[in-house]
Amino acid sequence: MTVRVTKPEFNIREKLSQLERPIGKKGSEIMKSETIQDAREVIRADRKNLIINGACTINQRFESGTYTLDGNDGAGYYPVDRFRSWAIGGGAFTIQRSDDAPPGFRHSMMYTVSTTDTSVASSEYYCVQQRIEGYNTSFLKWGTNDAIPVTLSFYVKSDVPGTYSGSFWNGGQSYTCVFEYEIFEQDVWEYKVVSMPGPRIGSWNTTNGVGLGIWWDFGSGGGFVATPGIWQNAGDFRSTNQVPFMSHSGAKFRMTGVQLEPGLVATEFEHRNHGEELALCQRYYWQQENFLWLYSLDVNHSYVRANVFYPVEMRAVPTVTGTFNTAGSANGFQSITKKHTIPYVNTPGSGLVDIQNGIFNAEF
Description:
This protein is mostly beta strands.
């Protein structure tokens, strides 16, 4: 006796596509993982983003203002906290925080070419950087045989499409690896991912200095050119294919959603709450406006001491500057710890010093 069983026809392509639906975004990332370690990195619950202020939410220096950055600013300046920028050459750009951002974000950093540089000298450079503290990168074990790879991801939008480049580097900028990424469309937000092998040689700070730095280039001079993807004992930060962004008058470059994480898989951006992100930024820079200090005199009446308790312990003893509303009350600050206490030279007055603006800076 023969029994025949029949089933209705079905579209195997459709059935396969349905298999992807239940796994979600995290499941898809796990399935794409090449190693067990990569899969663990996707599902970990601890903090993963080594970049501070990657969503450009903190902007202590100016909330909505602009700043024109040119060759006179040898120390660079910040469109948003932690992203230090330079324009060392004949060109200049305006930097600011922008409300133009991709879905899931509110802000970006924006660069607008205000003075073009069509002939950049070999030693001139235009860039934005983030310098990450050694305490936060020591677990990567760079410079050893156990060096952990990292993945950089970010959203970018530019008026000038083409090949862009940047680099990873150590604290002395003496050991670097250049990377490239492509912007395909003009004035459209695009998502970029760059994976970088961990270097097994080189000197890498593991304390409160620069543990590693990231450089995004805008068209620096020929003296900084290197082949992408190769760690080398040199201070080179861009590739030969870099778009000459600074030669385009009025061109705009925006970036946000910047994340650096261990492993070879780029995961969704880690949004931290505002208070936590602000505290992370204040380790390097904070300011306070319009406040009174009650001072005490030293035994010789040569200076007064005011105890100011910082919101967080700073990376290093900060440089302190400020302006005073109290006429003749003070002529200088001097910080002596990373946590509190500012002694300052003073002509004794009423016992109160009215500070218009105090700036505490421990950037590197």
